[in-house]
Design goal:
Helix content is 16%, strand content 10%. It is built from eight helices and 13 strands. Strands 11-10-7-12 form a four-stranded mixed β-sheet. The two termini are 24 Å apart. GO terms for molecular function: formylglycine-generating oxidase activity.
């Protein structure tokens, strides 16, 4: 736009990385976005009327292929116990551990699961349970930091010995992506073999900026809309996915699915193709009172409790167990009528707009865990904005002062600003809850033996991914004068 060349030290040294696809992070699969009808697909037998069907659009994103398993969460605990080994961090270590007592019941013999489910190798790849929403949120931050730290070490921009320092009780001095980008964490710079990064004077630099395209976006819990869209896997109904600009699928989305797979069975729950698997259940759930897995010699789902995270039938996006196994935390704050109130593009309730806490001054922006300290934006500075006026938007239009609605938590309702949505149904639920449109809630500091989670990540760039262009491109034509 100026005639000045990019990546030229003699013309200002403005460095621009070439546009490229975001690398698929460990454990993730790509979900091509689109429009769909979010909400109920079956009769509302609970009478909640909290999932009114509504047409929305979800942009493309990444989501975990499977639920987070015990072995994955134990890696997190291992890191926490090593980095925060100093006794002053004991509350941090204990606060990260799952609550194994969720298995207890006054009238059931579940004590072995209390002792063994999370730790025994036989349950390595079973979904972790007993994890609260807050713990799942913190796990996502940790996962982001470990993945990005690994990216920098593999590219040579951080010395691999940094890991040894961290794991030897590094405490606050552990890698955090945001702290690194803000210059609050230095670590030990590496010596990349082929360093394409330059400063304004054309000299090689070892500190990576986000616009260099090396670091990945953050892992996080999926929004309810993302989770539900990924669960339905509608891409199976539109098979001619664009392979060139001359061929693309039709906008075909006519068959509402009850569960996370196409309705090709007479009761939607069992495999119908002839062969060894004919009649087998496609998900892990409770068929009826007292029937968690069928009769010996003919077990219907072969799982009395949660099964391995790669068990059962993957859907159109290749995602496992979006119906059954364990219900899953999503990012949203629960409100019965959010579907009617939220935007129709990337709907979500739970925003709390924050900024970096600069009160400590440069060099003191991190908290005791090594993360950048954040504070809510000041509402007095937002009065002139047109798109939002308050930093706390969790109860916007439903429980805030402008809506004239109040929630008497504990008196007239169990819904509060700490209520988070859970989706998908579990090993101990009837088939009704397996439908992606159903929704329930649990307080964000509570946990259950039937609730786990998986992570998601934004997918910057083209909604089709794989190097596709954004928008429709037509042959160039000379304009008539």
């Amino acid at each position: 736009m100026t005639g000045w060349k990019y990546n030229d030290k003699n013309m200002g040294g403005y460095n621009v990385a070439k546009a490229k696809n975001v690398k698929t992070g460990p454990g993730l699969v790509f979900v091509q976005g689109g429009t769909f009808t979010m909400g109920a697909t079956t009769e509302d037998i609970m009478g909640d009327w909290n999932n009114i069907p509504r047409r929305v659009t979800v942009n493309s994103f990444f989501i975990d292929k499977t639920e987070v398993a015990n072995v994955h969460y134990r890696e997190y605990i291992h890191w926490i116990e090593s980095v925060f080994s100093d006794p002053q961090y004991d509350a941090v270590v204990q606060g990260a551990k799952p609550d194994t007592l969720v298995w207890r019941s006054e009238l059931a013999f579940n004590e072995p699961y209390v002792e063994y489910y999370f730790r025994h190798p036989s349950y390595n790849f079973y979904p972790v349970v007993g994890v609260s929403w807050k713990q799942a949120h913190d796990f996502s931050i940790w996962r982001t930091d470990r993945v990005n730290e690994g990216e920098l070490i593999n590219a040579g921009y951080q010395n691999k010995n940094t890991i040894k320092t961290e794991m030897a009780g590094g405490g606050q001095e552990n890698f955090n992506t945001k702290a690194y980008l803000m210059g609050e964490y230095q670590g030990v710079p590496g010596k990349p073999k082929k360093n394409a990064l330059k400063d304004a004077q054309g000299r090689p630099r070892t500190h990576v900026n986000f616009d260099d395209g090396i670091l990945l976006p953050g892992y996080r819990l999926p929004t309810e809309a993302e989770w539900e869209y990924a669960a339905l896997g509608y891409i199976n109904q539109n098979p001619q996915v664009r392979k060139s600009e001359k061929k693309r699928g039709e906008e075909n989305n006519t068959n509402r699915q009850i569960y996370s797979w196409q309705n090709d069975g007479y009761d939607n729950l069992r495999a119908t193709r002839r062969g060894a698997w004919q009649g087998s259940f496609l998900a892990n759930f409770k068929r009826g009172s007292g029937d968690n897995m069928g009769v010996a010699g003919g077990l219907n789902d072969r799982s009395a409790i949660p099964a391995e995270v790669t068990a059962f039938f993957p859907n159109g996006f290749g995602v496992y167990n979006m119906s059954g196994n364990v219900s899953e935390w999503v990012a949203d704050v629960y409100r019965p009528l959010t579907n009617q109130e939220a935007d129709d593009f990337n709907p979500y309730r739970g925003n709390r707009f924050q900024k970096v806490d600069l009160s400590g001054g440069e060099g003191n922006l991190r908290d005791s865990l090594g993360r950048i300290k954040m504070v809510d934006e000041n509402d007095s500075t937002l009065r002139m904005r047109r798109n939002y006026q308050r930093s706390y938007a969790i109860n916007y239009l439903d429980g805030d002062s402008t809506s004239n609605v109040s929630y008497g938590y504990g008196l007239t309702t169990l819904v509060s600003d700490q209520s988070r949505v859970i989706k998908g149904g579990s090993w101990n639920d009837r088939a009704y809850w397996l439908s992606p449109g159903t929704r329930r809630f649990l307080e964000e500091d509570q946990s259950s033996s039937t609730v786990g989670f998986r992570c998601a990540m934004i997918a910057p760039g083209s909604p089709e991914g794989n190097g596709r262009k954004t928008g429709n491109f037509f042959p160039k034509r000379r304009q008539k004068r």
